[in-house]
Amino acid sequence: MKTKYKVGDIIRYPVPGACIGQYFENTVDKEARIIRIHEEISSEDGVIVDCELLDKSIACTISGKLLDEKNYLVNN
């Protein structure tokens, strides 16, 4: 599967608000750097990635699905 994303890309990804202490928000768009692309487990409609948040509001990596129909890249 060919993806438009690569390791090191900066994306804007909707992170669940409860994870970062914003209980009044459902999700919060955060800038993150892709650190791994899981092409072996990705599906027809998107790709699974591991990211690190640039603002360090969460000290670990997060995983998420980038849907093909949506553009997550910060700088195109």
Number of helices: 0
Portion of residues within helices: under 10%
Q: Give the H and E element order.
A: EEEE
Spatial strand sequence of the major β-sheet: 1-2-3-4
Main β sheet profile:
4 strands, antiparallel
- Gyration radius (Cα, Å) is 12 Å
Q: Uncertain spans, ≥5 residues at pLDDT below 50?
A: none
Question: How many individual β-strands?
Answer: 4
Estimate the mean pLDDT confidence: 85
Structural class computed from helices and strand pairing: mainly beta
What would you say this structure looks like, in words?
This protein is an all-beta fold and 76 residues long. It has no helices and four strands. It is globular. The mean pLDDT is 85.
Annotate the secondary structure layout:
Elements: E1 10-16, E2 27-43, E3 46-53, E4 61-67
Antiparallel strand pairs: 1-2, 2-3, 3-4
Short recap of the structure:
0% of the residues lie in helices and 51% in strands.
Observed structural traits:
76 residues, mainly beta, globular
